[in-house]
Design brief:
By secondary structure, the protein is of the alpha/beta class. Helices cover 25% and strands 21% of the residues. A hairpin with a 6-residue loop joins β2 and β3 (28-31).
Length: 195
């Protein structure tokens, strides 16, 4: 049985183990950023598909990105408008981002603050985590903790009775917007329309 309480999940994540919990889009596989390779291995994910750094608050993410004062202002305005929510911003990475997050192109980092009470509660205690959808690479995202437990028996999943009301209805992934230096380029259209 790999379903655990919220406290056990937080402790495991802090200790460098692979965990899974619901978000506002699809459930996440997550690990501390330095242990990102655990996610690549479990998912059989190609190293050219970077992970997303997820946190409970935008303020916890700005140290992981690198831009000038004008860019920070634009990025923060976008974050203030859409976060917490289903928008991933791909920005120039700072030296704080471990190579395990983006092995092929460590110059960028995707960041997001989920609009999900249980995810926020976990992230507030773990600090920012490397995340991606809970599924084998190229397969549809898994929707329930039971499905995740069956496909990833080695992963500690949040006990279903702790997240009953937190399984998202639509399962639509986040919109991914990359900063080009001048404006946003949509890499994946998800639940949020950037205007």
């Amino acid at each position: 049985m790999t379903q655990v309480s919220l406290d056990a999940l937080v402790a495991a994540a802090r200790a460098g183990k692979l965990v899974s919990f619901p978000t506002d889009t699809v459930p996440a596989l997550a690990a501390i950023p330095e242990q990102g390779e655990l996610i690549f291995t479990a998912k059989r994910r190609s190293p050219d598909k970077p992970l997303i750094l997820m946190a409970a608050r935008a303020e916890e993410l700005w140290a992981f990105v690198n831009g000038n004062a004008d860019e920070y202002q634009i990025w923060q305005q976008t974050a203030n408008k859409y976060w917490p929510g289903a928008l991933t911003l791909v920005l120039p990475a700072s030296a704080l981002v471990p190579k395990a997050m983006n092995p092929i192109d460590p110059t960028t980092i995707g960041i997001r603050v989920p609009n999900c009470a249980i995810a926020q509660k976990i992230l507030a205690q773990t600090g920012p985590l490397a995340t991606t959808s809970a599924n084998l690479s190229g397969q549809p995202a898994l929707r329930t903790m039971a499905e995740i437990e069956a496909q990833f028996p080695e992963v500690l999943t949040l006990s279903a009775n702790e997240c009953e009301n937190e399984i998202p209805r639509n399962g639509v992934p986040s919109t991914v917007a990359k900063w080009t230096g001048k404006d946003w380029q949509i890499l994946r259209q998800g639940g949020i329309k950037l205007v």
